[in-house]
Prior knowledge:
Blueprint: H1 3-17, E1 21-22, H2 23-30, H3 34-48, E2 55-60, E3 63-68, H4 73-76, H5 90-102, H6 107-114, H7 119-127, E4 131-136, E5 144-148, H8 150-156, H9 169-187
Antiparallel strand pairs: 1-3, 2-3, 4-5
Helix pairs in contact: 1-3, 2-3, 5-7
Amino acid sequence: xxxxxxxxxxxxxxxxxxxxxxxxxxxxxxxxxxxxxxxxxxxxxxxxxxxxxxxxxxxxxxxxxxxxxxxxxxxxxxxxxxxxxxxxxxxxxxxxxxxxxxxxxxxxxxxxxxxxxxxxxxxxxxxxxxxxxxxxxxxxxxxxxxxxxxxxxxxxxxxxxxxxxxxxxxxxxxxxxxxxxxxxxxxxx
Length: 189
């Protein structure tokens, strides 16, 4: 089988799936090892990077998906239903940030960091498919552990959590001090 034929099979798999497909599943379908399959995916990705192509190959933590290039979005929505845009309020974004950097994390841990109930924000993030249940803590009551989803990676344009910006330790100390001062004001101390 030629490289072009193998690339065609991979392309057909990804197009038909409509969502991301793990590398292992693609390799199994191709009846080959992961590394040669990964090289085929890299070649496909490179060919899609050419300006005249309307799609691109995205990688999300070892899974691959065909996606529309952002510069063609305006033309695509004239034909395809416009996707619903989710609005992330400051509260929801703050909650998402905590989950992204602390995951896996429980609601109680989120609320301890924020200092207020977070049910609405967590429920909204689940509704938007930005977070999901990733397990249960081995503790009394077995609280649910939350983590980000592949949709989170897609929305924020990163391939993995390692690409998230590193928090500046000085900034963290300043934020912690501000939070402690706010807590004192709120409690009247």
